[in-house]
Design a protein that fits this description.
single chain, 586 residues, alpha/beta, Rossmann fold, Trna Endonuclease, Chain: A, domain 1, five-stranded parallel beta sheet, five-stranded mixed beta sheet, 15 strands, 49% helix, 12% strand, flat
Length: 586
């Protein structure tokens, strides 16, 4: 796939998982063509993969070229004059639209800030005079200082363009909550000139079925408050949660390899569990600047987590402190900190305001407490409960330790070494759980067998060629394990919105060598069946076609072996098979 928009994740291969969310939103985008899609808001805290998801949706939609035009705009967290903002918004839309229509991605990089005349030349050159009319309207509003008309013109440009041209556009606006807090009607950007009602202009625009909105925000409470107050019933909410375990495990191994940070099968399991499957925590720990970082031992993992959550240089601590800093200038008092500590300690239950006042012996009215709690909710450091009268702590074990490490000593006698001891005890408990899992599956290695085999191919395939060939049946006579340009799992063409993947895709570096498409089953008891082999062959043939592969071998590893029917079928179809644990040896 061509990545028209450069994704901030960096190497596109680092994008991992989010299969369910991709499938949902790709269908949502496809449904725009039938005018069925309702404007939607994606909500998650920072660094949970929200922007990565939206940018990937933009690229897939752009690449697919199937009747829906993607428009992506990020509202920056910095003060900006409304005229500059509107021109930026307008030109971003124009150049993305022209790039899509002409299939020329260079237009995405030709964008010149504020140069309306250059944009006019581009649209006239490409025969899109209706966009020249939009530019003239913007120029007229700027010249006559018609700020309200200017905002209305650029805000409605995607909708009106789609309607007038008989097209469909998906509007992706990232960090939507900043729309009312970072834009000023005065060029000097004085606080008195804050344009704090711009979001309200989307009241009717958000109802468009030819250009619905997909907005996002990393301040969940803030964005929900804005949408509920100014755009009631205009958006559906989708919360981006932590990843499923299999996607979290894949993230650990992928980041470990990409950033060259060694990790064992055991510590990978411990990291996934301790990080509660959060992509932000996983990335931060693997990429941590912790002195002497070691993710191959429990002691090393413990020290890395201590650094990330207790040291001022830790990315995890710094990120959470951004949320705290947003709330505490308004309510920076001992009571607020005590409330957060209490709710976080008992985060598995809800508390009414009456209970909070009683248990913490607060000398304040219910109205004063409500105001304080609402500020904490808006800043995402506590959560609203099942009603407006109930509240609960953030369901996050690591946040609890970050907050306690900074503030608990102000409230009560506290030694930060308690947190270090808790990390050690939690890792020991997880190690015991991991041992039970190995016992349950009756294995001493290979709980994450597919990743061990991926590493085998990537780093040892050529040097262990003879050994691996002796433990693998039905390989072509001229087959050799070789050097591979890419070795990872294969998620099948997300533009088709299907959940379709195989465990191994190893593309040979040389055209004369064989690539490998493979499947791994690490279960101990159930043998690989013929039905599973038939299904694998279907996926194999489809991937072979999509990836335009000539010399490629199908490969199945099954720890429990194969049924007689499956074995015969694999031999007949030339599917390589193995059940030898040598594949799992380092």
């Amino acid at each position: 796939m061509e990545y028209a928009h450069e994704e901030r994740i960096g190497n596109p291969d680092l994008f991992t998982g989010r299969i369910k969310e991709l499938a949902y939103f790709l269908k949502w985008i496809n449904d725009i063509k039938e005018r069925k899609s309702h404007s939607t808001a994606i909500l998650s805290r920072r660094k949970m993969g929200k922007t990565a998801l939206i940018e990937r949706l933009f690229n897939i939609t752009f690449n697919k070229n199937d009747g829906v035009i993607p428009f992506y705009f990020e509202i920056k967290e910095r003060k900006v004059w409304i005229v500059d903002f509107c021109i930026d918004f307008c030109l971003t839309f124009i150049y993305q639209y022209v790039a899509f229509k002409t299939r020329n991605v260079r237009y995405l990089r030709l964008y010149e800030k504020g140069n309306l005349e250059k944009a006019r030349q581009v649209v006239k050159k490409e025969g899109m005079d209706y966009l020249a009319d939009l530019i003239s309207g913007v120029e007229y509003a700027v010249k006559h200082d018609y700020v309200d008309i200017l905002w209305e013109t650029v805000r409605d440009a995607p909708k009106i363009t789609a309607y007038s041209q008989g097209e469909f556009i998906v509007q992706m606006i990232d960090e939507f909550q900043f729309l009312n807090s970072m834009i000023y009607t005065d060029k000097k950007k004085s606080e008195e000139s804050l344009a704090d009602d711009l979001a309200g202009g989307y009241l009717s625009t958000a109802e468009s079925k030819v250009a619905p909105l997909l907005v996002s925000g990393s301040w969940v409470g803030w964005l929900m408050n804005l949408l509920n107050m100014m755009l009631p019933s205009r958006f559906r909410y989708i919360f981006l949660e932590n990843m499923p375990e299999d996607e979290a495990v894949e993230t650990v191994f992928k980041y470990s390899r990409f950033f060259q940070v060694p990790i064992t099968e055991e510590t990978a399991y411990l990291l996934v569990q301790m990080a509660e499957r959060s992509p932000f925590y996983i990335s931060s720990i693997v990429r941590s600047a912790s002195p002497g970082k070691d993710l191959e031992t429990i002691g090393g993992m413990t020290r890395t987590l201590e650094f990330e959550t207790l040291d001022d240089s830790g990315i995890i601590k710094a990120t959470w402190m951004e949320y705290v800093a947003h709330a505490f200038p308004q309510i920076n008092d001992r009571n607020a900190k005590n409330i957060v500590l209490h709710l976080s300690k008992y985060r598995d239950r809800e508390f009414t305001r009456e209970e909070i006042i009683k248990e913490l012996k607060l000398e304040m009215s219910d109205a004063e407490l409500e105001l304080k709690l609402k500020t904490l909710v808006k800043s995402d450091i506590i959560m609203q409960g099942s009603s407006n009268y109930r509240y609960r702590g953030v369901a996050d074990n690591i946040f609890d330790k970050v907050f306690r490490g900074v503030y608990e000593e102000e409230i009560r006698e506290f030694d930060v070494r308690v947190i270090k001891k808790e990390y050690s005890e939690e890792f020991k408990a997880l190690k015991t759980k991991y041992g039970r899992l190995l016992g349950k599956y009756n294995c001493q290695k290979g709980y994450f067998a597919e990743y061990l085999i991926l590493d085998q191919l990537k780093f040892h395939g050529r040097e262990k060629n003879k050994l691996l060939k002796t433990v693998t049946r039905y390989l072509p006579g001229d087959f050799d394990f070789c050097d591979y340009t890419r070795v990872w799992r294969y998620n099948f063409s997300p533009e088709y919105a299907r959940d379709f993947s195989v465990d191994i895709f190893a593309r040979a570096q040389s055209p004369g060598d064989y690539s490998i498409i493979g499947e791994v089953k690490s279960r101990e008891l159930k043998k690989f069946s013929k039905d599973e082999a038939v299904l694998f062959l279907e996926k194999f043939q489809e991937i072979k076609k999509i990836e335009n592969l000539d010399r490629v071998v199908g490969f199945i590893f099954s720890r429990a072996g194969f049924t007689k029917e499956a074995e015969d079928y694999c031999e007949e179809k030339g599917i390589a098979c193995s059940d030898d644990v040598i594949w799992l040896e380092k």
